[in-house]
Amino acid sequence: MPELPEVEALAGFLGERLTGRVVERVYPVSVQVLKTYDPPLTSLEGRTLTGARRLGKFLDIAADDGTHLVVHLARTGWLRWSDRLPDAPPRPGKGPLALRLRLAQPSGSGFDLTEAGTHKRLAVYCVRDPADVPGIARLGPDPLDAAFTVDVFAGLLAGERRQIKGVLRDQSVIAGVGNAYSDEVLHAARMSPFKIAATLDEAAVGALYEALRGTLRDAVERSRGLVAGELKAEKKSGLRVHGRTGEPCPVCGDTVREVSYRDSSLQYCPTCQTDGRPLADRRLSRLLK
Fold first, then answer.
1. Sheet with 58-63, side-by-side order of all strands
2. CATH number at residue 212
3. β 49-55/110-115 pair status
């Protein structure tokens, strides 16, 4: 799933290519991805695009009349840029193509939104205000915003009786962090993913805050300037524990382990994060005694 660093890079990539360009056509190839109907997608046609930005894990593309095309790529969605899209309109079908946006100039350029797999969660909204998108309206603070201080972070964690892994992934608490970067942040902070958030003392909160900001900033810098097609590979190459079950931890050399759930998994290093003790691999895992 694209998270804060990849969506930030996508926004920068699209901003350079879309700003000042006129939309020729928008093709909703898969109607189920479209979550709004007023204004219609056709209202974007003929409009000049004014920029692209990231809101949490949402991508917001703005037009000169105040209309916004908002995209959430979900787990398996992606954006594919082309300097020359096919001339023939796309046909609805069972393939991965969900939506195509074609620019008037350079003629034929634009992008496709695609989604692999059988569970279709890619979501597209055409709205007058991004806050009209329910997921955006619920977003917590952005962890890279200057206003996101360690005191703000401490306030968010206070009273949270949930495991810290789940708190970091909750978009209503902190915007933009998903499964992969929560693993990376916790590894950098040398913290168990099952630590209860409200039990963290001042030193632990400070260490987690620095790990959160540092991990995301580093990932954003690695992704900056890359074309859309290179972002997935860059994300994978920069991860130290997530998706690396069975490999040696790059910090201590211990074997990276995994806890699997029904539809996701987390990875961690026992030596770095749990005092050498493995976590039980079940949904309500606790440290093995």
1. 49-55, 58-63, 68-72, 123-127
2. 1.10.8.50
3. unpaired
SS3 label, residue 172: coil
Dist CA 236 CA 226 (whole Å): 14
Residue 215, domain member (yes or no): yes
Residue 254 falls inside a structural domain = yes
- Residue 10: closest CA among 79, 96, 113: 79
Q: How many beta carbons lie within 10 A of that of residue 231, not counting itself?
A: 21
- Reported as type and span, the H/E element at residue 189 is none
Contacts of 74 (CB under 8 A, 6+ apart): 1, 115, 121, 122, 123
Whether residue 43 contacts residue 255, with contact meaning beta carbons closer than 8 Å, is answered with no
Q: pLDDT digit string (tens) for 227-242?
A: 788 888 889 899 999 9
Which parts of 19-59 fold into alpha helices (H)?
none
140-161 tens-digit pLDDT: 999 999 999 999 999 999 999 9
Co-location of 123 and 170 in the same domain: no
